Amino acid sequence: xxxxRGRSTTTGWTQPRTDIWQIARPDDPRVSERALLLDxxxxxxxxxxLYISKDQFLSGxxxxxxxxxxxxxxxxxxxxxVSDDGTRVNVAWKATATxxxxxxxxxxxxxxxxxxxxxxxxxxxxxxxRAKRIIxxxxxxxxxxxxxxxxxxxxPHAFLDLLEHIAATRPNLSTHILSNGxxxxxxxxxxxxxxVAIEDMMVGIPLYAADPSLHxxxxxxxxxxxxxxxxxxxLVAAGAGVxxxxxxxxxxxxxxxxxxxxxxxxxxxxxxxxxxxLEMTGLARPNTDLVWVDPHDYxxxxxxxxxxxxxxxxxxxxxxxxxxxxxxxxxxxxxxxxSDWKNDYPDLCQPCSVKDQCSGVFSTSGSxxxxxxxxxxxxxxxx
Length: 383
Ligand code: SF4
Hints:
Elements: E1 5-7, E2 9-11, E3 20-24, E4 35-37, E5 50-53, E6 64-66, E7 79-82, E8 88-93, E9 101-103, H1 126-137, E10 144-148, H2 156-169, E11 174-178, H3 187-194, E12 201-206, H4 212-219, H5 224-237, E13 241-247, H6 256-266, E14 272-276, H7 288-291, H8 299-311, E15 316-319, E16 334-335, E17 343-344, E18 361-362
Parallel strand pairs: 3-4, 4-5, 5-6, 9-10, 10-11, 11-12, 12-13, 13-14, 14-15, 15-16
Antiparallel strand pairs: 1-8, 2-6, 3-7, 7-8, 17-18
The chain binds iron/sulfur cluster.
């Protein structure tokens, strides 16, 4: 697990011109707009907008933030958010990470039983503006971003404004949006969304059951199934990319094949379907008895759903599943999908011959893991 926030101290503090800073390379010609890491042996340059020191006793020739040991991983290309008084540093972007996401809001019109980021009702509208500043600060090499919530479209105008900002500044940034899909049931909104000139953009929308009442129960919201399906249909009609996300849990595992069949018959034109394992954090913890199911126990259901979807020509992937609890025939579809900062491999994984190809576990799930994880010692996988 990579810590992404920490308490900091300051030296020579005057409130900088912005809260968002890309960490510059030492030879960066735009260093005055960026933050510079102080070298281990104290070498530095004048003129940086901000200095970041991993040493409590080493300061730069300008306002300096001294970060705690847990943020010792900071490196050029990362983007940090620094509080006005310099006492808190959050990492908004890890240049080396395979997945980077930006939170747009904690508000949501669903209250899913297993939500890993339980919705909050307060006014967090500042997050959309912050997201724009993060996008502006991204390193040139940034390739892909995930926009998350809450429900990213909860403020439709702020959401579209952010997308227009990406289109204007980083049109090549592959943009994935995790949405419950309901906003897209509004045709006018969807038309506007689909006209944004970002080259590669996709919405990932959850569908948890073919039975509308079961889907609505899992997301704890009336008429959710019908509205989300309408959103998917509007997106496809507008020529936009759609991914269906199925989080497998106690309530829907027995009906997984039925859902796969529903998708093959009614939504075969989506770009991809992702069959996902649970992250046992957020609401999933108090709801453990309602949601938890050991992936080892639903291998047959996963295999059936995968084959139904793939045989219909739908690109299907398996996320968040450990290889040792998935049938080997499905391994080629199992993706290392867990974000680097919360990805872990328990001690038992150390001798495993497929560790480098396995998604491992969510560190956020704590000890709530399959009791059937076992190192695999007899396989060599080609990468
Ligand atoms: S033992 Fe660990 S690394 Fe190996 S397949 Fe299982 S979870 Fe993955």
